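Late entry, written up from scratch paper. The run itself happened at the end of the previous shift, but nothing got recorded in the book at the time, so transcribing now.
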Amino acid sequence: MATINPEFGEELKKYGAFDFNACYNCGTCTAICSLSTEDDSFPREMVRLSVLGDEEGIQGSLKPWLCYYCGECSTHCPQVANPGELMMSLRRWLTSVYDWTGLSGLLYKSLPLTLLAFVLTAVAVILFAVSENFNLSAIMHVGHYFEMIAIGSVFTIILLPNIVRMWWLIIGKPKVKVPVKSYFTAIGELVVHMFTQKRALGCDDNQFRWFEHFVLVIGYLTLLFTTVFLDWFSATNMFVIGLGYVESIIIFLVTIDFVSSRIRKSKEVSSHSQPSDWFFVIWLLLMGLTAFIVRLFIDLDILEQNIWMYLFHMVVLVQWALIIVPFGKWTHFLYRSFAMYLAKLKVEA
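Output as recorded:
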């Protein structure tokens, strides 16, 4: 028997949910959603479970991740219950459920705590620079290896256990009997959705937004590869240098559009932004912009006289790697991809 939490609604509002209790179960949201099928009801089922306070039912569902928030359900809701934002809030809440450290929930619910984390990481970078007597070569050397260590450590220590917890809630705890072979044959589903997020193409009038996300994902991943593995800041190969410039410009331009869209609130998806939404797009924009300027200063041979520029880039990098990637909205990209993988496993079970 499911355990009902009568306080769940108030808890969910801390993650950005609105008055979803206004829903009177008319079904308009499900009728309008282009992703709804006879087997998958979007998003009415999640609205009902949220109203009931059925945390276990929500934890065992992939539906919050299978929704790509086109906003049509909120636009057409006659009660202004904002089911699209509820689904977004459920994703934030589920992120905190998966996170074994508990930090995701704390940072999502407390803006002062998030800002404190940003300040502490910035101070740590400055103190490190002071300890190195502002030696640019030494700082850049450590900065390069920090990226590699951070990628491996964050994934191994934080994200991988969280994915296992997600698997446990979806497959393990409900005792879904998945053939061992399926775990391997379904990997293609994971890879395809991780790089393309192609399910978003099923949303009406969402093709341009999907294309922007696709370009952003490819741009971000290739810039990460170029910076970390091709050592862009130390590279002398013109192809590598040019590739890094192109990638950073792409990230900057796409994120500028995302930021301006949130400022204008021109779409339903950007009309109710939470701090985590802003931090994600702004820090991604800063990643592309500061990386571009640092490399430009290197090519102009003026970085030595402007070490503050690299320190600013390093602050952005450390905050991105230690706060936003493991505990912020970046994880939604990861969990969405694994949700498609787990959905495939459930089909084959």
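The chain has a mean pLDDT of 90.
(Scratch paper discarded after transcription.)
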